[in-house]
Amino acid sequence: MSTATQPLPVINDPSEENAASHHGSDGRTEHRGTEHRGTDGRSTDPSRSHGQSAHPTTKPVRVARGAHDTGADVRPDEVETATAGIPVVGITAGMPTGGVPTGGIATLEPQTSRRASRSNRGPRTAATSVVHPGDALPNRRRVAYILILGALTALGPFTMDTYLPSMPKLESDFNVSTAVIQLTLTATTVGFGLGQLIVGPWSDKVGRRMPLILATAVHILASLGVALAPNIELLSLFRLLQGLGAAASGVVAMAMVRDLFSGHRLVTMLSRLALVNGLAPVIAPVLGSQLLLIMPWRGIFWVIASYSAVMLVCLVLWIRETRPKAARNATAQSTVAQRFKVVLSDRVYVGIVIVSAMNFSGLFAYLSSSSFVFQTVYSFNAQQYGALFAANSVGIIIGVQSAARLAKRVGPQWVLTVSTAVMTVAAALIVVLGSSGVGIWGVIVPLWFFITACGFGFPCVQVLALNGHGAEAGTAASLQGAANFSIAGLLSPLVGLLGVASAAPMGIVMLGCSLVSVCALWFVVRPKTVPALAH
To answer: In the prediction, which pLDDT does 278 show?
Structure first.
């Protein structure tokens, strides 16, 4: 079997441990329901008889830690061999309902002191410590996963936003209205949303790697179709297919991270993906504006096709399957409707999906209309427009990285309470100052705070949506992504219908989205009822 297709060693999920386990201060898991203490305070195993030897016949081995230290991959057969003869207590505690392993590695370590070994007072036992399966990856492979999956999450935003500076050129080349050009963006977002609804549940059933490869190949062909489209109708069709092809990048990348990590570690890893995913919509127009200096707008889509082709090569060569075979077999016995029912019956998840969709729609209202607002109303050229996006990227970086640290201390739901409030105030200021003719700074300053607040929210909504649904991570991520892009695509033309004579219509849509987000957070999610993240 080649390196690219070998499954990762996955046994159980630390985020779904049952009530019989207890996390100590050092992060180890003690299974109190199956372990007894002797009169001297030492741990004994009730399954052993008094006449049994105090020491196991096979030396206990630190499975995942040893692999991490040496840089070697740990495979299921190696785990089984290394742990032979070691008494393991509560090894299935991490199994969710149905006994499906969803993303944890049990490591075994000897816990008997030297004094106990010399005095032969009791049996030598192995305590169970649960770590994340991603920790078993060598450092180089883990870095490769972060870089490749991060680059994949950027594929969707690059597909949608790189051509934003060229939208006025498309309007003149095809001799159509602004609203028609905006519909090409809507076609992409709708395709992206529908694609996630297909790819996410499919990846739960057949694994992550193959859907990701096939969808990326579709994206390459669709990008070439857009570059060669002779009319606006075919361009819109290929933009829809582009969205379908790019759908796997975001949803499967997040599901892969959930396969590998949970709890606070999931916050850290998703914040890194959110940094790329949050920066991509900001950097993409900058890239597009620079490309327009050296090529026509069709050349942008040749560049996007090339980027997608590079991602396809990286997937084939370096990305391994993260969805364990046992989980795939169990998922194959359930229907897509049953998996959607599981996530949709979770009140917190439903509320977070609404918050996520409204936050993204508010940001997308700005992205879809800003090229007309700043280039038409405020007379920016394509390069100045790109520089504005570059300045806003600083806010995204600050928000995403700060949220990852704050979420570990106060909880991601409380970070959202502040970020959604800031978004609401900033959007209201854009409406007031934009309509009163204060000038460009009256729009740019509150806009920066709005985008920064979006950055604070990106990793928080992803963690809260995925952390409790390891067994159906692909389905949960797909529904969240589909809601984001479908609702954003449906709302973005509202700015064009309201007119782009000032920044006020853009601000009105952003304000409406922020208000819905605040209401969903407080009345559906209810921050006080959200469980704390596991370590």
So the answer is: 62
Can you read off the two tokens belonging to residue 97? 């309902």
- What per-residue string of b and e applies to 119-150 under the rule 16 or more CB within 10 Å gives b? eeebbbbbbbbbbbbbbbbbeebbebbbebbb
pLDDT on residue 531: 86
Closest CA to 417 of 354, 450, 460: 460
CA-based diameter of the chain, in Å? 91
Whole-angstrom CA distances from 305 to 72, 311, 312 are 35, 10, 10
Q: How far apart are CA 343 and CA 327, in angstroms?
A: 17
CA separation for the pair 19, 356 (Å, rounded):
31
Distance, in Å, from the CA atom of 376 to the CA atom of 181, rounded to the nearest integer, reads: 15
470: DSSP letter: S
pTM over 0.90: no
The CA distances from residue 79 to 102, 125, 128, 226, 267, in Å, are 17, 18, 14, 49, 27
Neighbours of 40 (CB within 10 A): 10
Average pLDDT, stretch 216-226? 95
Across the strands, what pairs with 127? 109
Q: In this predicted structure, what is the pLDDT of residue 450?
A: 96
Identify residue 170 by its one-letter amino acid code: L
What DSSP element (H or E) covers 434?
helix 412-435
Query: How much is the pLDDT for 386?
Result: 76
Euclidean distance between CA atoms 78 and 214, whole angstroms: 31
User: How confident is the model over 246-294, as pLDDT tens digits?
Assistant: 988 778 888 888 888 877 777 777 777 766 766 676 678 788 888 999 9
Can you tell me whether residue 169 is helix, strand or coil?
helix
